[in-house]
């Protein structure tokens, strides 16, 4: 039997334990809903509980995964941490940012000898 999926679903066991392994499909939905919420709100840069709830409901509707508000909040915290790391690398190194590919570019000349 060849029963492959394009994107693995978060395992039910992991969700019951409180840990969710996010995949690209989940992140795409998260991004879409957060953009909608940003356009609705004029806040202090953080999302209201209703935004996190909307995300959890959208993930459940689209993927059938029982994600809760804490899972969503933790994922956005991870994104903020990753953003901070990338910002530091871009600010304090001579590495460059490729705006088209949305990634850090390191040329051979930039590497220490």
Q: Can you summarize this structure?
A:
With 113 residues, this protein is mostly helical.
The succession of helices and strands, N to C, reads HHHHEE
Q: Strand arrangement, largest sheet?
A: 1-2
| Total count of strands | 2
The major beta sheet can be summarized as: 2 strands, antiparallel
Q: What overall geometry do the principal axes of the alpha carbons give?
A: elongated
Helix content: 40-55%
Radius of gyration: 18 Å
How do the helices and strands line up, and which of them pair or pack?
Blueprint: H1 12-17, H2 24-40, H3 49-63, H4 69-92, E1 96-98, E2 103-105
Antiparallel strand pairs: 1-2
Helix pairs in contact: 2-3, 3-4
Protein architecture, described:
The protein has 113 residues and is mainly alpha-helical. The chain is built from four helices and two strands. The chain has a two-stranded antiparallel sheet. Helix 2 packs antiparallel against helix 3 and helix 3 packs across helix 4. The termini are far apart. Mean pLDDT is 77; it is low at 1-14.
Spell out the key features of this protein.
mainly alpha
């Amino acid at each position: 039997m060849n029963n492959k999926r394009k994107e693995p679903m978060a395992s039910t066991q992991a969700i019951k334990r409180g840990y969710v392994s996010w995949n690209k499909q989940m992140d795409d939905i998260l991004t879409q809903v957060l953009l909608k919420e940003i356009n609705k709100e004029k806040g202090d840069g953080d999302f209201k509980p209703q935004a996190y709830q909307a995300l959890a409901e959208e993930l459940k509707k689209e993927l059938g995964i029982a994600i809760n508000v804490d899972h969503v909040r933790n994922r956005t915290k991870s994104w903020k941490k990753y953003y901070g790391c990338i910002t530091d690398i871009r600010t304090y190194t001579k590495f460059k940012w490729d705006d088209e590919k949305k990634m850090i570019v390191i040329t051979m000349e930039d590497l220490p000898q």
